[in-house]
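Researcher: Next entry in the queue.
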Amino acid sequence: MYGRERVKLSGVSGMKGGSLLIIFTKNPESGLVKTRLANSIGDEKALEVYQKLRCHTACIAEKVDVSRTTFYSHFIPATDIFLTDNYNAQLQMGEDLGERMLHAMMRGFEAGFRHIVLIGTDCYELSAAILESAFAALEDSDAVIGPARDGGFYLIGLNRLFQEIFLVVSGVQRRCSVKRSKYFIDLVYHTNCCLSCRISIRLMT
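Model: Structure for this entry, 205 residues:
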């Protein structure tokens, strides 16, 4: 559906001119995932919740006819639900979320992909249909953003690299305020003030 010519560059294999789904996941370790939830239900229960969310993400990701790369937070484990023939595996690189996302997107575009969508592994409402819609939106728009209820985002897709977007993500994270994270959506989608040039951005419903 999205292209079939194989390419390989810098450890990322994919389809030249095709589409890539990037999945950001934390290594599932007790006490290091869903920490806010763990405050009320405990580390082990929070880990169980996170594992279910990861399984859900893996299930819907495999229903979309694109290449897939999983970026792990700390290390690539010996076994994992994302370590199959259907996925490539990489490590996240960067000091904050914005830098890690930028690095992953750069790797994808360097490998020759035309459309790239990046998601996490903690959104149960995410579906294969939403992912398909995001890739379809990139046929007509430069970027697509899936806004989250807390004012942040659960999905971001690009058809070319805009480094300024990820500088905004880094700035929001440094302020460490969930409420202030709405700044990302407002700045990028409504005003484009963070960008050196105007781009077309589709907001997922």
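Model: Residues 23 and 70 are 5 Å apart (CA to CA).
Researcher: Noted, moving on.
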